[in-house]
């Protein structure tokens, strides 16, 4: 996939791009980046799609403004603007974890831009922990971010995210996890996001109550052993809230189906896209 930068709404967004055909916009989870989608993007390009994996504002190589009005509305507008800049009228959305609530915001705010939704272990259907909101407090937030970047803590968080962590916790994965939480720019952006938590929460913004308005075909993919957003609570809540959503579960799999079960994940995704990329 090729790296490029696109300026949208005054913010410089980094993305990875590959292929030609119907657009598929790939959104990563918290502390992730477009790189998380590289294997999926390359597969989509080979299958005849234009894969567009973007670093969310505040993450990866995109701008990390400390004073941006972070919100679901802002992110939805930025992604719609990104499609404009790329000459795409519509895109299928594939979104993991945190990216899921951004994809839902885009589908609600700009429904004509969304051909289909694939939500993977999506955020938006669980109550935030007190620590999440405390991350925006000036002194405590800085301390929590420092602690979160310690090697043992990063390892513990990633261990909880996988069903078989010993297969996936490489030195590279651990280093990327730490890097996302380190550095002045990263920490300022993460604290700004925490301060704006209410504006980035599906329930508190009223967007969760509006999910019944969605008309785009929706696929939900969940690992049966997801301990971050458990299937029994978040997965079932998502299926109940989104009209016509089809839930696929993957056994022996945690919070990253695209990593732990790539063959099953990609097979389901390609089948869904083939059926629905021409949705009107």
For the record, the count of structural domains works out to 1
Helix content: 40-55%
Contiguous helical run count: 11
The helix/strand series, from N terminus to C terminus, equals EEEHEHEHEHHHHHEHEHH
Briefly note the CATH topology name: Rossmann fold
Q: What does the radius of gyration come to?
A: 17 Å
- Biggest sheet strand order reads 1-2-4-3-5-6-7-8
Distance between the termini: 28 Å
Q: What is the CATH C-level name?
A: Alpha Beta
For the sheet with most strands, the description reads: 8 strands, mixed
CATH architecture classification name: 3-Layer(aba) Sandwich
Mean of the pLDDT scores? 90
Tell me the fraction of residues in β-strands, as a range.
15-25%
Global shape: globular
Task: Note down, in words, how this protein is organized.
The chain has an eight-stranded mixed β-sheet with strand order 1-2-4-3-5-6-7-8, sandwiched between helices. A hairpin with a 2-residue loop joins strand 1 (2-8) and strand 2 (11-18). Helix 2 (72-85) packs across helix 3. It is built from eleven helices and eight strands. It has a single domain, classed as Rossmann fold (3-Layer(aba) Sandwich), CATH 3.40.50.1820. The two termini are 28 Å apart. With 280 residues, the protein is an alpha/beta fold. The model has no long low-confidence stretch (mean pLDDT 90).
